[in-house]
Design goal:
Blueprint: H1 4-29, E1 33-34, E2 37-38, E3 48-51, E4 55-59, E5 68-73, E6 77-83, E7 89-93, E8 99-103, E9 107-108, H2 111-115, E10 135-139, E11 143-147, E12 156-161, E13 165-171, E14 177-181, E15 187-191, E16 195-197, E17 218-222, E18 226-230, E19 239-244, E20 248-254, E21 260-264, E22 270-274, E23 278-279
Antiparallel strand pairs: 1-2, 3-6, 3-9, 4-5, 6-7, 7-8, 10-13, 10-16, 11-12, 13-14, 14-15, 17-20, 17-23, 18-19, 20-21, 21-22
Length: about 290
């Protein structure tokens, strides 16, 4: 049997060993201290900002010419990584870890925070716009005239129907008319506002050549049961003939007021009729103006 003094000695040694283990374990779990500073591994402060517009594109580079890689929405938090030299674009990290670029004006962040972001080096140049070799579009109205040139004063050479697809070849200088290729491989022009295009029309090449001369005549139809044909552009002129409803007439042009058309008669002569009673697919301001 151990003496009382030996038991005290063994208990003391065991206590020392246990205390040493606890102290060592606690020390192993504490962060390392270097000159009094705790070193936090894998930590980098990223300032945050919120989106201030309903819908914001996130792009692969700092410019609208770069591809869209994601979208963020109003109030969404993003994390700021870099900026361009002029601070107009910010490189950001989204909540899911995806990285891209957003336009600075559409995020809420203090300017001093933006100014302190590192400038992104070796920013890729803006890629040139992609112009496909062939674009397409479909008709959005019930019937669309195809004309020989870019203008309502050009001759109608064909017609397209709602939902019909065409190949887009080019445009005029102000993008109001599109040159198309029809299913029979002939070419013509249609009003751009009635075509839903597969790409922005300004990306199409300009194929308009000069300003074509207006046609010598147009085709119109009488819309009332009996239409007086007069010797001049006005109700004070003599009635020289009458035209029945639905009668097709050749329209040579208009008077200065745009209220009267000069038309060809079946007997080979000509006269004037009130423009409001003639249906014609040409805006009156694009028609030739004739002397009475």
């Amino acid at each position: 049997m151990l003496s009382k003094s030996k038991r005290f000695l063994m208990v003391g040694l065991l206590s020392i060993l246990l205390l040493s283990g606890v102290v060592h374990t606690a020390a192993a779990d504490e962060p390392e201290v270097n000159n009094g500073q705790v070193e936090a591994e894998h930590f980098r402060y990223e300032p945050s900002a919120t989106v201030n517009t309903q819908y914001l594109n996130v792009r692969s580079g700092p410019g609208t010419g770069f591809d869209k890689v994601a979208s963020v929405y109003y109030g969404q938090i993003i994390y700021l990584l870099n900026r361009t030299d002029d601070s107009s674009w910010l490189r950001v990290r989204l909540g899911n870890g995806q990285i891209g670029w957003v336009y600075t004006a559409y995020v809420n962040a203090p300017w001093d925070v933006i100014a302190n972001l590192p400038v992104m080096a070796n920013v890729p140049p803006v890629p040139p716009p992609h112009i496909p070799t062939e674009a397409s579009g479909y008709v959005t109205v019930s019937r669309l005239n195809v004309r020989s040139g870019p203008g309502y004063n050009q001759a109608v050479i064909s017609a397209l129907w709602q939902g019909e697809y065409v190949t887009l070849l080019g445009r005029n200088t102000d993008s109001t008319w599109l040159q198309i290729r029809l299913s029979n491989y002939s070419k013509g022009w249609v009003a751009a506002q009635y075509i839903n295009s597969s790409l922005p029309v300004w990306q199409l090449p300009i194929t308009e050549v000069g300003t074509p001369e207006p046609p010598a005549s147009y085709t119109g139809y009488v819309t009332v049961p009996g239409l007086n044909v007069r010797s001049g552009p006005g109700f004070n002129y003599w009635v020289v003939d009458r035209l029945g409803q639905g009668k097709q007439v050749t329209v040579y042009g208009r008077d200065v007021s745009g209220r009267w058309y000069k038309v060809g008669l079946p007997n080979g002569t000509s006269g004037w009729v009130a423009a409001r009673y003639i249906r014609i697919d040409v805006p009156i301001y694009e028609m030739k103006m004739l002397e009475s």
